[in-house]
Amino acid sequence: MSSMPADTASTAGDDGIIIRARDVDVSFGEKKILEHLSLDVRRGEILGFVGPSGAGKSVLLRTILGLNAKQGGTIEVFGIDYHAASEREKLSVERRWGVLFQHGALFSSLTVRENIEVPMREYLDLSPKLREDLARLKIDLVGLAPDAADKYPSELSGGMIKRAALARALALDPEIVFLDEPTSGLDPIGAADFDQLIMTLRDTLGLSVYMVTHDLDSLFQACDRIAVLGDRKVLVEGPLSKMLDYDHPWVKSYFHGKRARTVVIPQAPSQEMPSEKSAGAA
Ligand SMILES: Nc1ncnc2c1ncn2[C@@H]1O[C@H](COP(=O)(O)OP(=O)(O)OP(=O)(O)O)[C@@H](O)[C@H]1O
To answer: Where would I find the ABC transporter domain in this sequence (predicted)?
Structure first.
């Protein structure tokens, strides 16, 4: 089923690391946003990326995707340094990731099916019929009804837009998807359903997920590991239990604050994440 090119399929993540960022520096003029930032994303995990507003979460995401320049350090995706890669290597990397930008960012003049076909047109040489069939499969995969295919974004609810945008992110059968605040704007049930969908895709497709989020429910229930951005670097990364034990003012107030106490499972286990499959949606 995977459209992964055979020549790149085995290059990366042989050690289980799908993204390896080391000593990354990003500045805009005099303003340093990221400094000596290091982070690993492991194959098959849902990594929740969290931090105060304005800390640089979107900047890091854009830098990983090659949309921002960096002034120092390296970022390897599938073992390839995208920033230093040839055009051919860049294309091979782009075919292996999918991105869901904040607010979905669907093309408003295209139907859902046409939106999903955009990356296929750009990167694959498929007949129109095959493109359409694959787009309909993706629509089914994300739990949208078949008739969503011919709808325009303006005809969709917020939750449907997120699913349609996810279907587009999955258009090329990526190994990793980047999700920028995927549950923002959804009601709690819609958000829990979306988290469940992400977990199902991880379990059934072996998908790796890099999820920027402010949503404590997602962090507590869907994420295998969490990384916290603060003071221009990754302060701490690991399972929820590590976050709960970590002694830093922002981390403490975030994970032990009033809002967190309504979400966190009392007596959270000290070693691993609570079993998200058995915990279910809140
Ligand atoms: N292209 C740019 N030029 C100059 N400054 C920028 C640029 N992009 C981002 N910044 C600055 O970088 C800092 C980090 O922004 P970023 O959007 O990454 O924060 P964030 O952690 O994603 O915040 P939020 O949670 O509110 O979305 C901000 O001070 C922002 O103004």
So the answer is: 19-256
**Ligand 1 centre distance from Cα of residue 54 (Å):** 5
Question: Is the ipTM beyond the 0.90 threshold?
Answer: yes
Quick: pLDDT tens for 129-154: 999 999 999 999 999 999 999 999 99
Q: How far is the CA of 81 from the centre of ligand 1 (A)?
A: 23
Half-sphere exposure of 80 (CA within 13 A, CB side): 22
Distance, in Å, from the CA atom of 118 to the CA atom of 110, rounded to the nearest integer, reads 10
Sketch the domain layout of the chain as residue ranges.
108-173
Is ligand 1 within 6 A of the CB of residue 67? Answer: no
Predicted TM-score (pTM) of the model is 0.86
Q: How far is CA 203 from the centre of its chain?
A: 15
Q: Say if ligand 1 is within 6 A of residue 51 CB.
A: yes
Query: Which of 26, 59, 183 to mutate to test ligand 1, by most ligand atoms within 8 A of the CB atom?
Result: 59
DSSP the chain: -----TTTTTTS-TTSEEEEEEEEEEEETTEEEEEEEEEEEETT-EEEEE--TTSSHHHHHHHHTTSS--SEEEEEETTEEGGG--HHHHHHHHTTEEEE-TT----TTS-HHHHHHHHHHHH----HHHHHHHHHHHHHHTT--GGGGG--GGGS-HHHHHHHHHHHHTTT--SEEEEESTTTTS-HHHHHHHHHHHHHHHHHH--EEEEE---HHHHHHT-SEEEEEETTEEEEEE-HHHHHH---HHHHHHHHSHHHHHHSPSS--SSS---HHHH---
pLDDT digits (tens, 9 = 90+) for 62-74: 999 999 999 999 9
Atom of ligand 1 nearest to the CA of 60: 18
